[in-house]
Design goal:
The structure is a homotrimer. Chain A is of the alpha+beta class. In chain A, about 30% of the residues lie in helices and about 40% in strands. Chains A and B meet through strand 4, helix 2 and strand 5 of A and helix 3, helix 4 and strand 8 of B.
Chain lengths: ~140, ~140, ~140
């Protein structure tokens, strides 16, 4: 069985982290599928999906890591060509990745107690985003 | 068809890498499913799953990369708030990711000859870990 | 339903990025499966799979990020033992990951307009590569 659902949301950009765990749980629970996997996919090249313990200190630590390793304020060839100033957003997104697969059993996701699913929006402006959920199983 | 299995193990923490390829192969082989995918998922926010050629030099190189890019000995906001000293473990885990999907055909995983599946435990102490295997296919 | 397909290609190595979106679309379209997921998997430990907006500036930016964060010209233990000089290729590959899962509905992949699927070959020489596509759904 395959059930396709979408989560739409608005981000602030600038490495905004948005906890989508509740919505994913609700969609899996309502899907009619008991056991399987939910594949989350972000259509776009300046945002990504991961998991994190969603507490303010860590969100700040995660953002600081991106500033150190893929800094905003160095030259990017993409920005020379396209002038949108978000070359760093693309590079971060390719490194973190647009896809996450989470198993579930008895309609319950295999997440840890302090592990939340997040959209990470690396773009340099507010964005409307849509995450596809492909729920598969039996 | 969906078969759920679990692999339990003990890690030393501190970027311990544990080769779980044999256990994954055994579970896939015993699942009764011929072709499909196995989704590995680590419940927790201070460890992750990836693949590597499992030889001592590379394990050391991989650990050194983490020290350079997400160092242990810089201030983390998470540690101020929670005092467990493992802020770096969380950030590394979010970057590497808790999930890996490996296809198999005729009960054989699509791994390269020198490609092993590993748990990477970034926490700063020994931990008991459980990895969920969702085996799906026909 | 499960359909297994393979994409064979030749890379130049040295962080060569190859756009495989067209081939993946064709295989999904020809699979006879309407909705589900395609799991891409790279058998090997010196290459990886991700998505990127495939334009020359960004390819160069992505390659520059790897040179900064996992440099070629620092000592690797792997190279001492094996002498192939590609220790950095292995470390990059483990960080980016060998696997990508993309949902599709009505035979259409859930990609963004400027989001392409790429093989990233980190090895230090030209390579023949094979990517497994596990197409699952109904």
């Amino acid at each position: 069985m395959v059930v396709t659902r979408k989560i739409a949301l608005n981000s602030k950009g600038h490495c905004d982290l948005i906890d989508i765990t509740r919505q994913v749980k609700e969609e899996v629970s309502a899907s009619g599928i008991d056991s399987g996997t939910v594949t989350l996919f972000l259509a776009g090249s300046t945002a990504a999906i991961s998991t994190i313990e969603f507490e303010p200190g860590l969100l700040s630590d995660f953002q600081a890591m991106w500033e150190r390793n893929v800094p905003r304020n160095i030259p990017y060839q993409h920005d020379r060509a396209w002038g949108e100033g978000n070359g760093y957003s693309h590079v971060r997104s390719s490194l973190l990745g647009p896809s996450l697969v989470v198993p579930f059993t008895n309609k319950t996701l295999a997440l840890g107690t302090w592990q939340q699913i997040v959209l990470v929006d690396f773009d340099n402006r507010p964005r409307s985003r849509e995450i596809v959920l492909q729920i598969m199983g039996e």
